[in-house]
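Support request from a user on the community tier.

User writes: "When I paste my structure tokens into the form, the page sometimes reloads and wipes my input. The last time it worked, I copied everything first. Here is what I submitted, just in case something in the input itself triggers the reload:"
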């Protein structure tokens, strides 16, 4: 029975909660960073005229 838990690591609840909080903070930061990079890319495309107006897209789609 003891071999079953040989690869198990015991982490105190307080430490686990702290690590989960750090993980959530990192996920929020990464999400915000990704969003800002998408905005930056969209601005570059607009400056280079690599965009289509919404009306033109709808027209091409037949909507």
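"...and here is what came back when it finally went through:"
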């Amino acid at each position: 029975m003891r071999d079953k838990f040989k690869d198990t690591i015991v982490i105190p609840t307080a430490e686990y909660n702290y690590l989960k909080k750090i993980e959530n903070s990192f996920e929020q930061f990464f999400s915000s960073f990704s969003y800002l990079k998408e905005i930056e890319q969209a601005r570059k495309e607009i400056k280079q005229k690599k965009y289509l107006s919404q009306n033109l897209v709808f027209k091409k789609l037949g909507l």
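Agent notes: The reload is a front-end session timeout and is unrelated to the input. Residues 13-47 form the longest helix (35 residues). Helices lie at 13-47, 54-61. Escalated to web team.
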